[in-house]
Amino acid sequence: MRSKSSTIRTHRAVTTGAALLTGALALTACSGGDSKSGDGGGDGGASASGSTVTLPKLNGASLEVAAVWTGTEQKNFKQVLAEFEKRTGAKVTFVPAQDPIINFLGSKIAGGQPPDVALLPQPGAIRQAVDKKWAKPLGPEAVKELQKNYSQGWQDIGKVDGKQYGVYYKAANKSLIWYNTKAFGNAGAKEPKTWQELLTAAQAVYDSGVTPFSVGGADGWTLTDWFENVYLSQAGPEKYDQLAQHKIKWTDPSVKQALTTLAQVWGKKDYVAGGADGALQTEFPASVTQTFTGGDQPKAAMVYEGDFAQVNIGDTKAKVGTDAKVFPFPAVGSAAPVVSGGDAAVVLKDSKAAQALATWLASPDAATIQAKLGGYLSPNKNVPDSAYPNEVQRKIAKALIASGDDFRFDMSDQAPQAFGGTPGKGEWKDLQDFLKNPKDVAGAQAKLEKDAAAAYGNGG
Length: 460
Hints:
D-Maltodextrin-Binding Protein, domain 2, 43% helix, Bact_solute-bd_prot1
């Protein structure tokens, strides 16, 4: 799921303190959402915020939209596209893209068949698309809609050299640990607030006869997310920004400390479902579903990943908020981390229809449709809390919006794609190797630095 030139400035994703999220994820609290929800209807229908998104009539126009989305996520997004078709008269075709999407788009463009709009999952990918002269700046209507509905921080991460290219249609809070409440209950484990408390809860779960953690190591991006949360909390925001831009090397002592901390989970015998070999054969969706199947004897009691894990929990019989609960990633250092990611809509064909679709995706109307379907989080501040289908999702959404511009963006998403966003290469592969041999901290650092230096084109 991930590129950029090394000149892109660091972006901050959600908040570096967890006080807001800890309260937001207290499942017994009320949502307090009193906004009216609604999808609007017809051309230029009223949005949930009371504003109006004006779309042109596009009868006879055809559009292609590419994204690396599958399953329920793709199905739900197609409902958003269907409403756009209804309002404008255009015909929209979803094109399933392969990861890394920049390579996929390169093939399409070389063949003379680029999609009209692509959803890019990294700020670096936007920069790359601009550098290659693929991406087109957003038109005035899309920019106007974006300015009306997004904080300045979320607008800025879609800019390259001061021009607006991306609409962050989808966001992710990637600092959550989901747990099987029955397994936790049987073990007498409590929701931890610190890393040490997490290890204590894991030991209690282990002593009860259940493996503590499920890790989707077959997808290297999940491992980068583990690292980023530990590193942000332990090393702090300034070091995080420096490492994200490769201004410090991966051989830095702060990286050694983070990897050593990670090894307390990854290297602990029988703490990871299937062991390292099993984890490396487990893709992310399976890492979630195996945590919430098997009643009080699942393959693991906890799984780390973002709010989007709810889509996969939905594939089991477990209910979010009762069978499946969540707590913020515990504080490793002085403050708990919250790392965010997202997917931005970028126009590749500068047509009236493509610009209209970007305008639509920047509106609360579009985001509200997908919010109601679950497993989705929008940085659009005019999507009402009540649009989200359960208490957990409402609180995660409220916390995201309340954080405003104080956030850190996923580190690997800021890296050149060769390092931070390619299966079987760079950081993904290096952390997979580290999962297999967590004792070799120095070896992992050396490989990470070698691959980072090559990708960034500098020595640190």
